TrEMBL record, chains A, B:
Residues 124-187, 188-244 form the CBS domain. Acts as a magnesium transporter. It is a multi-pass membrane protein. Keywords: CBS domain, Cell membrane, Magnesium, Membrane, Metal-binding, Transmembrane, Transmembrane helix, Transport. The gene is mgtE. Homodimer. The chain crosses the membrane at residues 344-365, 377-401, 413-438. CDD domains: CBS_pair_Mg_transporter. It comes from the Bacteria. GO terms for molecular function: magnesium ion transmembrane transporter activity; metal ion binding. This is Magnesium transporter MgtE. Belongs to the SLC41A transporter family.
Length: 440, 440
């Protein structure tokens, strides 16, 4: 329908869809299709659709509108959403758009954009409803009733003292159920979880999840209220961080880049292959001494892929379990030695099981050797060794990275498989020279 | 401290920690340590700690208490949490515990446990506050004020008609701000998102995230209200599903099993290695025809790991991007062919880049060959081929699985690396026989 480009049919179709669905389509459309659909939307629906789109795509779309129109559209969004989109618009365009804001609003937006993208400040909404601790329940209720700038997702009221410092919180439900003449400070909860603007967004999500909160207040070093991180943003963070960890572990970049953009994909993925390529060269160099053995028993080469592959698989299992376990707090970081030993024992058992199976099957597949028993032993012990090395590397590398405060998810996958290729195959060939009595 | 086993010191330490922290420690303790700490807790704190623990660990702990005490502890939890824990207690123990409930409560719990674990029914709370649509705002407010069984996390009131059918929703904030004499049906929101008890939990999480909701009502086929899924459970679902996807992709099981339990780990990981082992045997069998080539040019074996490894890495990148993209809705499933072509082109470009690099470096590493130029060509083209195959397999396998309604995350990793090992290395050796003029 969009391809046909009939604006009236597009408009009729849009009237039947909600903003979230339209945004979902726009996220996957080509730029000219996005513009056509956006144009066909009634003006009052545009901000809703924009707010529901992915920030990167919304920023591109906004960048293609006239600066004045862009400023108008963004002005109808919540401030934190507007800042998230504007933060992804290029610098020159950003200046042009901000020029259409009044000075104070532009300043507020710039302040929001100044916070680190992955911090509480970067995801918080500065619209937060706070009340003085001496106010009564009846007065507070009246304020909620008459406020015309009440933020969209209010579930808690934050209570501040005369220095604007956060001293407590009261839920709407508590407000409704308390006696009208009580002062707020007598009914509010004073044990509350708060974060600073610099707190990592992952930490904020963890707190919300552990304490079952739908909003977490953000305070400065004087405990003055700066804003609130709401649960809808926290949900996005949890998804985003999971995606990031998955991609990093696979060495596939840090975020899902536009799948349409070839050169962006190329740039995101190229560097991660460097480890594997350098590792591959190292493997070739280190196995070189065994050319003689290969010439004597070429069947050795046939089992290189399974020795390296099984090791790589076990290493990936170990490192994945450790990396994800660290992310969700399942790993006892104080018991490193025990964990590594346990994984190595697992690698040895799994290696023995599969190694014997493959060694027994080998002759039937026609792997020729003058000495099938010793070749079988080389395969079995080689697989066990490779899988033990893999388990040790896969477990200890992310644990050590975590201790050194390096993100354990970064390229764990390629690193583990490459080091297993080198160490596992070296061990395999060393075994071959010893057990088959051939010189390297 | 727990090791020393001094109950008084443990009790003093516990007094300084909140329930969530204590639960976090308990999750990682040995059973006898858990019992010791739990015993040292004041009785009124025990349900809070229990509710914050991981369900599996809480179920084990509950299973070790006397049935009567267990029933008492669980009676203080929210019904959905109690059902989640009880659902993990073994059958005989469960009967003993339920015998201490009154018949009606036991029945309600059993009903909750009967819903699929990963469905809206399985994660919903049956405690939901609903009001009749003819009630006025003032009356509804009074009901909220006086209800003594108000669920813990009430942010919305659900509105039902005379047949108990869900017809609308009103937020507490809207309730506070509306005129007292208005009937609820005049101010409620009638466009509301609801799910059925059978809806997959992943779908529920997606809806909450897209529509920024802190609760989603669950209805039966008559639209009668069964319960509500609250945001805290949704947050847990998002984390759990991400963990599951990560582990499945790596072939490391479906959930993070107790890292202390050796045999559970062995059982969870063994089957996933079967694909790699079977694949390894297939590789050995299919490369067998090239033993002659290996004897003539043993240097070919040195570059097998890098050809297979680079392919495996690219394949993992492609499949990870597609699997995660499908999970978060970034992938245009209607453009399968284009996506595969693009990934194959990426594989070819990356393969050309790294292939030339490795071929040029090969002679310096001392890879001896009577024909270094042709060996270089075999390495470069072999890597390009292997990486193109990997990109094609890595992209199309999860996309096809998705079309066939099979979870694309299941063992994509091992499957992709194994098929790349086979196809990539076959291509590499075929190239060698052609370009180096040796017979296979």
């Amino acid at each position: 329908m969009v391809h046909a480009g009939d604006p009236r049919r597009v408009a009729r179709a849009l009237a039947r869809l909600d903003a979230v669905h339209i945004a979902g389509y726009l996220d996957n459309f080509e730029p000219h299709e996005q513009d056509l659909v956006f144009q066909a939307l009634p003006a009052e629906r545009r901000p809703h659709v924009l707010a529901a789109m992915r920030y990167e795509v919304a920023a591109d779309l906004i960048g293609r509108r006239a600066p004045e129109e862009a400023a108008g559209l963004l002005g109808d969004l919540q401030e934190d959403d507007a800042a998230d989109i504007l933060g992804r618009v290029d610098e020159a365009r950003l200046r042009e758009i901000l020029a259409h804001y009044d000075v104070e609003d532009a300043h507020a937006l710039e302040e929001l954009m100044a916070y680190g993208e992955r911090t509480a400040g970067g995801i918080m909404s500065p619209d937060v409803f706070s009340i003085h601790h001496d106010v009564t329940i009846a007065e507070a209720t009246r304020m909620v009733q008459t406020a015309d700038d009440l933020p969209q997702h209010v579930h808690y009221l934050y209570v501040v003292d005369e220095h604007d410092r956060l001293v407590g919180v009261i839920g709407l439900r508590q407000l409704v159920r308390s006696k009208p003449d009580m002062p707020i400070h007598a009914v509010m909860t004073t044990e509350l979880v708060s974060v600073t603007a610099e707190t990592d967004q992952e930490k904020v999500a963890e707190l919300a999840s552990r304490y079952d909160l739908v909003g977490i207040p953000v305070v400065d070093d004087q405990r003055r209220l700066l804003g609130v991180v709401t649960i809808d943003d926290i949900l996005d963070v949890v998804r985003e961080e999971a995606t990031e960890d998955i991609l990093k572990m696979a060495g596939a970049g840090q975020m899902l880049v536009e799948t349409r953009n070839f050169s962006a994909s190329f740039r995101a993925r190229m560097p991660w292959l460097l480890a594997a390529a350098a590792g591959g060269l190292l493997v070739a160099a280190s196995l070189q001494g065994f050319e003689g053995a290969l010439q004597a028993v070429p069947a050795l080469a046939l089992f290189m892929p399974v020795v390296a592959g099984m090791g790589g698989n076990v290493g990936t299992q170990s490192s994945t379990i450790v990396v994800r376990g660290l992310a969700v707090g399942y790993v006892e970081t104080n018991r490193l030695g025990r964990l590594v030993l346990r994984e190595v024992a697992l690698g040895a058992s799994l290696g023995a099981l599969y190694g014997v199976g493959i060694a027994v099957a080998a002759p039937f597949l026609g792997a020729t050797s003058s000495d099938p028993v010793h070749l079988g032993a080389v395969i079995t012990l080689g697989m066990m060794g490779s899988m033990m090395i893999a388990a040790a590397v896969g477990t200890s590398v992310p644990l050590l990275m975590n201790r050194l405060n390096i993100d354990p998810a970064v390229a764990t996958g390629p690193f583990v498989t490459t080091s297993v290729d080198i160490l596992g195959l070296l061990f395999y060939f060393w075994l071959a020279t010893v057990l088959l009595g051939i010189s390297g």
